[in-house]
Design brief:
The protein is about 5% helix and about 60% strand. The termini are far apart. The chain is globular. It has a single domain (about 1-689), classed as Maltoporin, Chain A (Beta Barrel), CATH 2.40.170.20. The longest helix is centred in the first third of the chain and has 25 residues, at about 1-25. It has a 22-stranded antiparallel beta barrel. A 5-stranded mixed sheet has the order 3-8-9-6-7. A 3-stranded antiparallel sheet has the order 16-38-37, with no helix packed on it. By secondary structure, it is mainly β. Strand 22 (about 380-400) and strand 23 form a beta hairpin.
Amino acid sequence: MKGRKHYLYLALSVLIFFGVTTAANAEEPVSGMYQLETVIVTAHKSEEDKQDIPASISVFDATTMQDFGVDELETLTGFIPNVSIDKIQSHAGQIVFRGIGGMTNMNRIFNINVDGVTIPYSAIDTFLDVERVEILRGGQSSLYGRNTHAGLINVITNKPTPEFTFDAGVDYETHNTWKMKTAFGGPAGDKHAYRVALGYNSTDGYMENDFLGTDDGARHEQISGRVMYDYRLSDDTLIRLSLIADSYDGGFDEYFLLERGIETTTMNNEEGKAKGHLISPTLTWKTKVNGLDLTSITNFSSSNSQTVFDQDFTMMDMMLFMYDEDFNTFTQEFRLADEASGSFKWLAGAFFMLEELESLTDIGFGNDAGMMGMMPGMNMIGDGTIDSQGLALFGQAAYTFWDEFELRMRLRLDYEHRELAWQGRMEMDGFLIAPPQDYTRDDDWLGVMPAISISYAPTEDQKIYASIDRGYKVGDYASNQVDISAVTEPVDPEYTMTYEIGYNALLADKRLEFRCAAFYIDWTDMHVSVVQDNVALMQNAAEAHTYGAEFEARWRPTRSLEFFTGLGLLEGEFDRYGNHPDGVDLSGNSLPNAHEYNFSAGAVYRHPQGFFTSVSANFLGPKYMDELNEVEQDSYTLVNAKVGYIADHWSFYLYGRNLLDEEYLTHTFTNAGRIGETAVVGAQLSYRL
């Protein structure tokens, strides 16, 4: 049945493509009247037309995100072929690109760039006042470095403008949810400009606790802000200072025992908490040196996150998991580029990083812990610090020959020195009951990430390409563990090799955009969990592969109407995984947290008099939630709709998400799971100048 569904959605996508192509060509073309806008992206660290990128890239601008109610990463990925979120809680999750990223990791991996900077903070209101979001599938390590071996989210925010602008909006939704955002800015003198964006949201959430008698287990409150100031010294020189700040606080009572089925109620005796904050200033300097573009980006990010949850997921007082993390990162990047028109373009850069991760893991055993053989009142604590110093050199060269062919080559050398200091201890009522265990070590890792692509442009608006990329995930320490046996050995880097062929085109007088790609990924030296002497360790113990295809189409038949569709097909399995903690050989098992397919379709209509409507449906195929393939999430469909009226300075909308009220899992912890967002209806009022 699984294979039949793949062929069914493939056939449906092909029919849609040929159908819209025929209809578009049948209509009398009027040059420029219905054409899709040219989309300029910075996916490869320089500005270029999206159609010229020899890679799988999806781009959502602010208008499209507003049209379909996309205001967070989880709702966006539903529209992107072969990209999904393994969402752990309201402010944490892991992005899964083409099956890569859904494994349990030792420490967090961040692959979200905001205005050229990787922000090491999962809870940021990423889509506050954005211009566009670029989603790149396939290895991006040759330009972006470590931990982008499967893909990257590139967020571009709105910049200060020469005229004053203002917009604000407020939403009210099911579950007593409020969302408020505003952004404004403009000139502050001949050479100065500014922009300010503020956001606030709060909700009671959709989880209830039958044991505690509460109905706000997934509650949260978040305040976000961004300030940007531009000083233009000359036509060629810009200095930009920006500051991102964020704070959130909420509950963490979202997991229920899977044996009870998928539901919105828990029986946990502790409601838990999830809170954190971030401050991240960035200084960007752009100028020209002898006709070359010089860019400098300096960033410092300081964040904290705290998590507390009932680890036994029952009304019994057995285990409470507490985690506190401080993350401080300083990065400096320099880029020099020759982007002038011509047959040869190049970019070269250097990157420097200082990073400190301090983590405190505390597992407390309650009054009923004796039922599981543990001492009531005892705490097992792991206190770890990882200091990292990194240096990278990278570059890209693109050569166009015979007018129709382009060769691109990229290379990045990533060196990183890491030092671990860890202490494990056992306490009772705050007093040591055994001597503490201390462990230190340091390691050096060097990653070499080449990439090459060749493309052929039969016409100005069509491109066929083939590429090979080597991806890299840095080595790591299990500093967040409480048993020294799990800490004493690091894992070496893991790698992916991505082979891809694709086709990008603007057809039907540029009213139809079509993109497709086929890929194969070889994944080696994977970081996985293994067992030695009854202790779960992380090792480079597995190999896997994924392969599949992706299709995207967007069609504007009239000035007011636009359609889109997207399809992702994916197969992925372990080639080798013989020492899992459960003592079974998982070779041949499917990769976890990766949908076998996802198909999206939708339309948006704007009446000349201001009436607006949009509708979308995301069909997500089955996936296994764990490496053992014991917990499977069946396929499900998310239907969203939005209607409203748009005037010159204000707009009003009614909308709904998950209108079919589908029940589905977003994450599992062994015997417990988390349900996705239930049906939501809401209203939005906005004003703009």
